[in-house]
Design goal:
741 residues; alpha+beta; 6-stranded mixed β-sheet; 29 helices; 17 strands
């Protein structure tokens, strides 16, 4: 069986799962499509058109595997603003103008895909995006709450709508309008269903999503009145309006305003929010994919752009990747893009076969679904989560949120970015750190020979402004490999980077690899949160070492307990025990920290900062070392890779020593010292075999103790454990050898 036949067989075998998942998703997409369109002041059918166009085109041409495409929450406020502004009081005409903006937005997204601009979402601070999403949620809630309680004609800004909510609730008590009262009861009950749905643990009840239960119950209620021969107490103004023949009543875009400033701004606003929402959703869904596949975001952008253009031409809304429906898709066993396709087919079937039932859906029921959606986007818990990360993050979050509410989304996200940059400069007391290094290469990636792991070093600063450089390097590493990511040469790391790296770490863990972040132990933090901003501290004040342990420090503390050792994080300048080693004769030792100490055997492992060179040529190096105090005297020697530090030790009077009958050892290592006979006596066959069977370590003796060094960099926790294991075995070997003599 060839690969193509096998692929076809797998596709056919998984078809029932994907059909079922597509059906379940369509049950959610139907009410949401209608509701999102109504929330945007567009005809209800426009939301369904977007879901159908997105499902079919993205399924056929997209680069993701289990995502669902359709109208998105994030665009409601943008589309509502475009329809209101472009229509100048005529909402339907504004809708036609907005359709033209949607068409151009799709073309722009298509172009972004061809230009490989899938990294667009990487250039926005995480807290600013959270603030923007919260503002969108508040905007949806402000508008839809009035409809949920029967006030269909409420108008005004987001703030005005929020302030008039108490008046609407008072009106319910005093009104005699039966339509309003009945609609509000349906709306409030629908909201209660959305809130308490997850708390009902009946497996049969959970088979149907909460939004579909709302439609079933509200439409069923209208049929109950019909069976009883009583008039339904809700007028047509409070019900969904769908044309009798959908295909012959499609709306088409009006392009007469394409050169006006408001139109151009609408195109850019729609494109910006659609791109950000889609890219963030794609990355989130990739983490949910049980097969751990990575989406081709640029290919998806092209598919979403084409789908948006076609949707706009047919009278539909924007097409984006939607996280909630995609999550449902994954949870119901979808394995490929066909689920997206089938969800569209089921929507077409619903519209064509159940038009009469769709017309019985109360607007208040759909509004309740959106009120709950808006609340989840602006959940008070998200405020608390942001605040726990750091005070500067809540400033960025709230600035973006309030600017978006009082102006528009483009201004809001723009101000959020600007405030983030200013805060970063203030925290670092430096403008030049960012301006002088922004366009410089600051990422070094290579695969280390001995361990086979990848080492990534980041220099200068790493923030949302240049995070894409680091992501490009990490994307080049197979997710089944181990990566050591070193920030010791980096002065500043922001929240967006640390949060993004956590996503990478989770992906690598799922595929058998790992990412360990090192080099942040000297950086200050504003909170205990693992995503808090980290900035370098002066040598004199290493506060985070005592206040805020990094993940590496916590893991080192655990490792020390496992060995029965003591862990001391704070800085120590008492480095006299290292001065007798030839390695430090030309190097200036500053201090050590992160000390792991075995008092019983007088062994210790620590991070050491030292410098070589002087003036402008001075270079600071941070290294993890092991020091072993011996109970016996041994010859002074140094062992390293052949040729690595040969010059330094030859200047100290050391000569290369050959071990007889071990040509491979002599080829790979440089062994040097003054007392050749004593060194020959120490390096027995057993010792040589031990060294040949382990990874390279620089080993040096000053006669009474050993110094072990792996690389001239900090080690990860796993690498530190391997060094300890190596050092303990070497210690036992040396002690036993000398005692036996």
């Amino acid at each position: 069986m060839n690969a193509k036949t096998n692929h076809t067989g797998i596709f056919i075998k998984s078809l029932p799962k994907n059909i079922f998942s597509g059906f379940v998703v369509s049950l959610i997409a139907l009410p949401l499509g209608l509701g999102l369109a109504l929330a945007s002041e567009a005809p209800p059918i426009s939301g369904i058109i977007a879901a159908v166009a997105g499902g079919i085109i993205v399924a056929l041409l997209g680069g993701s595997k289990v995502t669902i495409a359709g109208p998105g929450n994030g665009l409601v406020i943008v589309l509502l603003g475009a329809i209101t502004i472009l229509g100048e009081g005529d909402l339907y005409q504004g809708y036609l103008f907005t359709l033209a903006a949607i068409v151009f937005s799709g073309i722009l997204m298509l172009l972004l895909g061809f230009l490989k601009m899938g990294r667009l979402a990487d250039f926005f601070p995480a807290s600013a995006i959270q603030g923007m999403l919260a503002a969108i949620g508040i905007g949806i809630l402000a508008k839809q709450f009035h409809i949920m309680v029967g006030h269909n004609n409420s108008r005004g800004t987001i703030i005005e709508l929020l302030l008039t909510i108490p008046n609407d609730l008072l009106d319910l008590i005093n009104t005699a309008d039966l339509n309003m009262l009945f609609a509000s009861v349906i709306g409030i009950v629908s909201l209660l269903i959305m809130v308490f749905y997850s708390k009902i643990r009946n497996k049969f009840f959970q088979l149907i999503p909460a939004p579909m239960w709302i439609l079933i119950l509200s439409v069923g209620l209208s049929y109950c009145y019909t069976l009883l021969g009583k008039p339904y107490p809700i007028g047509v103004d409070y019900l969904v309006s769908i044309p009798d023949d959908v295909l012959s009543n499609l709306a088409f875009p009006d392009f007469t305003k394409i050169l006006q400033k408001e139109f151009i701004l609408a195109v850019f606003a729609i494109t910006l929010i659609a791109s950000i929402e889609s890219l963030l959703s794609i990355k989130a869904v990739d983490k949910l994919d049980p097969l751990n596949r990575r989406s081709n975001v640029n290919k998806d952008l092209k598919a979403l752009g084409l789908a948006t253009t076609i949707s706009g031409l047919l009278g539909g809304l924007n097409v984006v990747t939607v996280i909630a429906r995609s999550s449902v898709n994954v949870n119901n066993g979808a394995t490929n893009r066909s689920a997206n396709f089938f969800h569209s087919l089921f929507l077409v079937g619903f519209v064509l076969l159940f038009q009469e039932q769709l017309k019985r859906i109360p607007l208040a029921a759909l509004a309740a679904i959106l009120v709950y959606t808006g609340y989840k986007l602006a959940d008070p818990e998200s405020f608390r989560k942001i605040a726990r990360i750091g005070n500067e993050q809540i400033v960025i979050f709230l600035t973006t949120l309030f600017t978006t509410i009082f102006t528009n989304l483009i201004t809001g996200i723009g101000v959020g970015i600007l405030v983030t940059i200013i805060i970063h400069m203030v925290l670092n007391k430096s403008i030049s750190l960012f301006l002088s290094h922004l366009f410089k290469p600051n990422i070094l990636l290579f695969k280390e020979e001995d361990e086979g792991s990848f080492y990534v070093s980041v220099k200068y600063f790493c923030s949302f402004l240049n995070f894409h450089k680091l992501k490009d390097k990490l994307d080049d590493v197979p997710e089944s490999e181990d990566v050591v990511l070193d920030f010791s040469m980096c002065s500043f790391v922001d929240h967006t980077v640390l949060e993004g790296l956590e996503n990478y770490r989770a992906t690598f863990d799922k595929k058998g690899g790992s990412i360990e972040v090192i080099g942040l132990d000297k950086h200050d933090a504003d909170s205990f949160h693992p995503f808090a901003i980290r900035k370098i501290l002066p040598v004199a004040a290493l506060k985070p070492i005592e206040r805020y342990f990094t993940k590496r420090q916590k893991d080192l503390e655990v490792a020390a307990k496992d060995y029965g050792w003591k862990y001391i994080a704070k800085r120590n300048t008492n480095t006299s025990f290292l001065e007798d080693f030839i390695f430090f004769h030309t190097r200036e030792i500053d201090y050590f920290y992160n000390l792991l100490k075995d008092a019983e055997n007088d062994c210790s492992v620590f991070d050491l900062e030292w410098a070589e060179g002087a003036f402008i040529a001075k270079e600071v190096v941070k290294t993890t070392m092991m020091h072993i105090k011996l109970d016996v005297d041994i010859p002074v020697f140094t062992l390293d890779k052949e040729g690595l530090l040969q010059l330094i030790y030859s200047l100290a009077g050391f000569k290369d020593i050959t071990i007889e009958n071990h040509p491979d050892f002599n080829r790979r290592f440089n062994l040097s010292g003054e007392n050749k006979n004593a060194i020959h006596e120490l390096f027995t066959d057993e010792m040589v075999l031990f060294l040949e069977s382990h990874p390279y370590y620089h080993i040096e003796s000053n006669g009474s103790s050993l110094l072990i060094l792996k690389n001239e960099r900090l080690l990860s926790v796993q690498e530190t454990k391997r060094m300890i294991y190596f050092g303990q075995q070497l210690h036992d070997l040396v002690q036993h050898k000398k005692i036996s003599h």
